[in-house]
# Entry
Amino acid sequence: MKRNLYLLALLALLLAAAGCGNGSESSSPAPAAPVDGPITLTLFDKNVGDPFTNPVSVEITKRTGIFIEIQQPTGNPDEKLSLMLASGDLPDIVLMDRREATLNKYITSGALIPLNDLMREHAPNILEQYEDILAKSVFEDGKNYYFNNWYGLDPDPNWSVGIRMDLLEEFGYGSRAQAGDAFTQDEFVDVLRKFKDKYPGGSANPALPLTADASYMPSLIGTFKSMYGMKNYYEHDGRIEFDVRDPRYLEMLKFINGLLNDGLLDPEWGINNGQMCTEKEVAGRVAAHLGSVGDANSTFLEDYGEDTNRLFYSFIITAPGVSREETTYGPRSSLGWDGIGITAVNKYPVETIKFLDFLASEEGQYLLMWGVEGQNWTLVDGIHTPTQEALESRNKDWAAFSLETGARKWTWMIKNGYGADGTPHDFMFRYERNKVDTHALTSMAGTVWDTALYDDIGPTAGTPEALSEQKVRDIIDAGFASIVNAKPEDVERLYGAMIADMDATNNAKTVEDIFTQRYAAKVALYNQATGSYGAGGN
# Structure
């Protein structure tokens, strides 16, 4: 009954404010008069449609004076967002995939209000926590229309080469492996050869020294590229070009081709799914893998016990002439997955920005991700420490734990990484690692790099240049498959033919001009916005 009175009061205020103009720079609606009790705001979250009633929700309302009415993201969230935009039936807050074209449509149509003035006046936590993320996510007019979610570089390792620890110890690399050292390409090949020689298997089930789960092929090719320090594009002489133009790309092709021709790489590496990969690994036919390990480590632990070293651990492999620091195993965008914006129909922009500012604060992050203090965790000597009951409940069934406590149910304004006390914001999946993950934090340390300024620099979808880009990438994909499976003496010839085909028939250089221009424009916007979020900024 009490909440209904709040809603009736809000409705009366909205009706009274209908038709009121707004001459402010931000084009946001005129603020409504205060209400007696929590303000109810509608929020469309593409990820979650649960009611805002769990313990974390109650605490958020207590801290901020905001109650959230969640709009259920039934069906395709992007389609629903498009329908809401077309009809004008907008919520007060939207959380959408920042990588979808719909976000730009919301901005260009005026459905999202600019946030710069609101941030400077009412959001000290956002300004402190987001830092240069705000400058990297400005729109082409230099303003911010949304806040990134799951922002900041996730420090956890991304790509790696997994090698069985027991084999590294057997073949004389044990102490370095335990320490998390990087291995040279020659040392890696030495491990693969020794495995094949000592454990050749039978004709029906031969050794497959290196295999891969090809469920996401770009990550496998990316892992090979990482050995050579290559990135998404080839950047030189002020231009951004397709990665295949990098001279190291040819060297990488020769390496993969050599692995296949020498019987060191699983012939099915490009078609394996997770189950196929796991079956081969569990059968003892595999020494190393690229990509997801599947369930192999779990099975090894079940079969050999918690103390077993017959597990795949993550390592850096360096190509000839490439140092550990030059490898590129950790491509991630600091801009995250989602964008959270305030819509033009929101009658409470100041209260909303204050609500979002609380969520972005250190206090808000731990409430969202760990749950309510005193129920799920306490501070022990200044360190966030989960209760034993919370740990046991999370370990038993993390989804049920989240549903009951509200911990990690609402992932709004989330910052990757760790809090000031060194504990991870993500209690559910980052607190207390297993020994393989703990080892990876050392062996893959420092490999994460930011792709943000390279994101979305290709031609606009639907343009002739976008079609040209796709044709070029089709040529690259076909060329890659042909080259790595060719006879070694044919590799350079086939590579040259691929480059010639790109240039002769599909206007690759025009597409690269667009890469270069759009990248330069993004860097210019970033440089212009950097440092402008204090008092007196743009």
About this structure: The mean pLDDT is 91. Residues 508-529 form the longest helix (22 residues).
